[in-house]
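Before relying on records like the one below, remember that each one covers exactly one chain. Contacts with other chains, cofactors or solvent are not represented anywhere in the record.
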Amino acid sequence: MEPQPRGLVERTRRQFFQDCVAGLGSMGLVGLLSPELFAGASSGFTPGPARPLTSRGVHIPAKAKRIIYLFMNGAPSQLDLFDPKPKLIEYDRQPIPDEITRGERFAFIRGTPKLLASPYSFARYGKCGHEISELLPHTASIADDLLIVRSMKTEAFNHAPAELFINTGLARVGRPSMGSWLSYGLGSENADLPGFVVLLSGGGQPSGGCSCWSSGFLPTIHQGVQFRSAGDAVLFTSNPGGISRAARRDSLDTIATLNQERLGTVGDPEIATRIAAFEMAYRMQSSVPELLDLKGENPATLTAYGVEPGKPSFAANCLLARRLSERGVRFVQLYHRGWDSHGTSPDDDIVTSLRKRCQETDQACAALVTDLKLRGLLDDTLVIWGGEFGRTPMNEARNASTYLGRDHHPHAFTMWFAGGGTRAGSTVGQTDELGYHVAADPVTVNDLHATLLHLMGIDHKKLTYRYQGRDFRLTDVAGEVIHKMLA
């Protein structure tokens, strides 16, 4: 169902009659008292209307101050990257036992599928002995910095719903994304940049579209702001031709005066959001060009990331993510498309396509973790790597294709984490001998969200927002903190 217009949301019949019962005296009292007195009545985090991104306190001691989320949309194959299965080698190309898949619903597999061994070798790396594929030599070099979770589970098995679920906690459009919740709950440490920034590479948006970084029913000041790699980095921030910066300032002051008057009359929080958005856009006219200018970066740093100056790439986005984090941006999310590996052609198989995706991302992911560590930022910056679900241990063989590929698999997949209070050099969870089901320490998407909020100093049960008569939270009615993930 589409969200209702803000005016209807903010003034339901129930709220109207509630105000009537309260009477004119209470209405007058509200006008006399500062809104900050009521901040956090339900969540501990409600911002005042004038400064919706003001940095705020936490429920518990925070291990992390910011998150960089490297989202590999399309779903990387955990069985070819982080979860080796000798039994798949032993039973390669043999039908999977019927009792395992009986009643199973697949996205594309039909009939009785055959097991598929990984064409890649694995080795142990670092003092911790993480098993990592030959496709990820740079990631292998930072093994001791990584927490690898092999027991992720999700409830959705198609891309758009699964992307929405892992980003917003619901497999349908309309809920706020994790970055928006953090912006709402914690505010921003930089008044000149958004609290939540999105960077895209690999060719377009994820299947879930911009709903993956939507603010949902939260004030729209908390939605993710996409930085583009061509033209204006942020839409609608440049002045039109013939408009000077001084003229822009004068027009914004006039508009702000009118908006403030209207805000005082109707109390619509979206007016406060509009005022804040205009001011943010004005400040970004100066802050964003400075941020995107990589001329001051050490050439050795550019080489370490694999950045080619002037050429958009995942590597360039990783470097920008570090620069954004240095400047206090709360949540930076990088989306890199192309990890779907069904095996219908060389463009989506696990022999050609998967190797290309790893070549595009492996070096920069490792460089980002190393760079943060060298700058003393890794301890309080949480880096996350993963997709929306996993891949099957069977070959898809759609339409008798001879290319090797794996179908969507929600029952088990892998993510890794670095810094931000996570347990470096450890592995959480395991899958069965075929990699089909989680065999120990399952981690659901709700558990993931609860744990990430915990690391940021937030009790996931207390960060709520009242909407249409009920309190909503990122984890809805589920989610437990996974203490095995914590340092």
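The chain has 13 helices and 17 strands.
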